[in-house]
Amino acid sequence: DACASFSYSLVHAVGYSAPTQSGIERELGLSMAEFAIFGSVLTIGAMIGAVTSGRLADSLGRKMTMRIAAIICVFGWLSIHFAKGATMLYFGRTLLGFCTGVLSYVVPVFIAEIAPKDLRGGLATSNQLLIVCGSSTTYITGALVTWRNLVLVGIVPSVLLLVGLLFIPESPRWLAQAGREEEFHASLQRLRGENADISEEAIEIKEYIESLQSFPRARIQDLFLSRNIYAVIVGVGLMIFQQLGGINGVGFYASFIFSSAGFSGKLGTILIGIVQIPITLLGAFLMDRSGRRVLLMVSASGTFLGCFLAGISFYLKAHGLFLEWVPALALSGILVYIGAYSIGMGPVPWVIMSEIFAINIKAIGGSLVTLISWLGSFAVSYSFNFLMDWSSAGGRSSCSLRRAWSLYCSWQG
């Protein structure tokens, strides 16, 4: 469906740089610094998209916002496909980032607004699963085709999204908020079925809209009032820890990491894709059964172990010790890291963010947390390539230890 196309399109844009680094650098003659910019400039566009997404979705509607983003996404992919140098690559990547920032807000909101109550949680989880499936497909496909052909693969879901939007109704909640009564009832009836009784749900939606309008307009400074500041600290703190864990560095430069350890970059990225799907399914199954806190603790411990193993492998390589173990240790470390991240540190902060903010500051609080997430993503993705080249062997491992310990202590407290 249209939302599935979005999920694939989003992660295809984010994960595109991981399997294509060597091909792009070789064909276009990019330096390490230039490719670092290419890998990270997506997050700059995403920050702009995240900041503007709420206003766009509220003023233009959910469908129109998704349609505009999908069109821009196509132009972004074409810019990368026909690139002859770094400038066109950066331009296309920035466009993709903007679309990613917009769609990563609008689509979950759209799903929540059109889904029946009893299916809302399941559809939100399935969206996360589709994102992981798209990520896995990108890693696997990228190992088999050239970087220009992988661009064409990215265009397909954007086109499917445009086509799918022709056949799905607008969000009933947005129509009700916009005062378009006839379209509101028609949309809700179409979503629930011709013979369904929508009268009770229609009243509930209208009451919800009225309650929203009864609150004063939220301002940035409202986030820092005593009644809201704890939620802000939790939401922002989780996103900072999520990004400082280095997931986007690993995701953007996975092929380079494997190659540096003496393991096949293509095979390594394929294995990442294979590991992600079942682990994410397990995380979705455990989300409401084990609780958010337990999943975060298990995930943080696992990401530490993965980073520690990868750090040990590079330490051994730098000192010429047990060289035959280096590729296996690096592979094990990265796979453990990706698996542990997928079960908790990946999905849980976003779920918590959707639950902790009061109704009147939910939109502005969500925008702040999303902006912080993309800002952290930029810092990590831009610096990661340089850290891999500059840092002493084992340095990343010790940093991972300190980060995991501070995370553990903060949760225990």
Question: Can you give a write-up of this model?
Answer:
There is one protein chain. The chain has 413 residues and is mostly helical. It has 2 domains: 1-168, Up-down Bundle (Growth Hormone, Chain: A), CATH 1.20.1250.20; 216-413, MFS general substrate transporter like domains (Growth Hormone, Chain: A, Up-down Bundle). It is 83% helix and 0% strand. The protein is built from 19 helices and no strands. The protein has helices at 2-15, 17-28, 32-60, 62-81, 86-114, 117-142, 147-164, 172-177, 181-192, 199-214, 226-244, 247-252, 254-260, 265-290, 292-318, 326-345, 348-356, 362-390, 395-412. The chain is globular. The termini are far apart. It holds the Pfam family Sugar_tr.
Cα distance spanning the termini: 44 Å
Low-confidence stretches: 392-398, 400-405
Tally of separate helices: 19
Tally of domains: 2
The CATH superfamily of the largest domain is known as: MFS general substrate transporter like domains
Strand fraction band?
under 5%
Order of helices and strands: HHHHHHHHHHHHHHHHHHH
The CATH topology assignment of the largest domain is: Growth Hormone, Chain: A
Question: Notable features of this structure?
Answer:
single chain, 413 residues, Growth Hormone, Chain: A, mainly alpha, 2 domains
